[in-house]
């Protein structure tokens, strides 16, 4: 499977700082379910599945929608999927977190999903949000966003395909306490994004 790499761009890593809160753990044991509207091809010898036309993939709470998906099963039994959107209709991804009522959702021109590393790579005009119910808690936009569902770390890369001017990444963090709210009586909320202590910013060209 081809990889889309961007060299010499600023890299920023952020973590959703809630160690016990990860993507829905039960999803790992759920089967993949595929639906599509156009042609499809299953190559049992090479363990490869190609889907085309309003493709919808579910795996527990995980929901992926794309125009085209190419999925390969590795010898170890893991799956690697490469999804592509249609003009004006990006790939969309959504998955519940173990925190009740919270989920991660994102859109991009292309998407790579790897069950071995449990990472989702949003490529081109990428936007990823953490939702608390229907409300947006955090929003991140950039050229490439890699989400590790096990560690809850986002890696952000700038570049020419960023939705923001000059390839800059953009992060929006909504306040957990709104004006007029009683902070003392408000229920505990999950912590916001914070800088990673393991990854360092890359050097621009």
UniProtKB/TrEMBL annotation:
Keywords: Periplasm, Signal, Transport. InterPro entries: LPS_export_LptA, LptA, OstA-like_N. It holds the Pfam family LptD_N. Residues 1-23 form the signal peptide. Residues 183-199 have a biased composition (Low complexity). It comes from the Bacteria. Residues 42-152 form the Organic solvent tolerance-like N-terminal domain. Residues 174-205 are annotated as: Disordered. HAMAP family: LPS_assembly_LptA (MF_01914). Involved in the assembly of lipopolysaccharide (LPS). Required for the translocation of LPS from the inner membrane to the outer membrane. Belongs to the LptA family. Component of the lipopolysaccharide transport and assembly complex. This is Lipopolysaccharide export system protein LptA. The gene is lptA.
């Amino acid at each position: 499977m081809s990889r889309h790499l961007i060299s010499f761009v600023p890299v920023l890593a952020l973590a959703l700082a809630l160690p016990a809160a990860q993507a829905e753990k039960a999803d790992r044991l759920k089967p993949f379910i595929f639906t599509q509207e156009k042609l499809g091809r299953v190559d049992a010898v090479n363990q490869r599945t190609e889907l085309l036309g309003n493709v919808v993939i579910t795996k527990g709470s995980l929901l992926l929608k794309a125009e085209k998906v190419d999925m390969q099963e590795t010898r170890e039994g893991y799956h690697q999927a490469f999804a592509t959107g249609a003009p004006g209709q990006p790939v969309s991804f959504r998955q519940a977190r173990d925190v009740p009522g919270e989920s991660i959702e994102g859109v991009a021109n292309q998407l790579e999903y790897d069950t071995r590393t449990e990472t989702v790579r949003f490529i081109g005009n990428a936007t990823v949000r953490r939702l608390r119910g229907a409300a947006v808690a955090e929003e991140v936009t950039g050229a490439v966003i890699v989400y590790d569902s096990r560690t809850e770390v986002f890696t952000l890369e700038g570049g020419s395909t960023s939705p923001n001017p000059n390839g800059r990444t953009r992060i929006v963090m909504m306040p957990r306490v709104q004006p007029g709210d009683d902070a003392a009586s408000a229920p505990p909320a999950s912590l916001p994004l914070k800088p990673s202590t393991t990854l360092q910013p890359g050097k621009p060209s």
